[in-house]
Amino acid sequence: MTNKEILQADLLDILFEHRNKLYGAYTLRKTYTHRLGLALGVALSIVLLFVLMSFINKEKNTGGIFKNEGDVVKLIDVDLTKRNDPEPIKPKPAIKPPRAEVDYQPPVIVDDDKVREDLVILMT
Predict the structure, then answer these.
(1) Rounded-to-integer distance, Cα 124 and Cα 107, Å
(2) Is the entire prediction scored with pTM above 0.70?
(3) Angle CA(100)–CA(106)–CA(111) in degrees, nearest 5?
């Protein structure tokens, strides 16, 4: 590109100057603003639809079976000194899992003439 072409060119055209524009990235970047505007429009219209539906439902429920006439509070006498709690449940003692134990016996040192050959473990 010459200097005059660079000043007039789009940023995407400069970025994709010596690259393949046919594989899709150029087209996706070129139409990004259109897709973003469409997505925002659809999302905002759905939110507006839900808001309008909530106002319509409030107006329909004014003369129905269920009417909200305010909160009703009843006062009752309760004797807090009497307790009807059952006895607390005592936790069971924790059972310790069995573990392997090894009986350690110190080695016995004997003279060479008293060693039995069948008990010798060869260590090589």
Answers:
(1) 19
(2) no
(3) 145
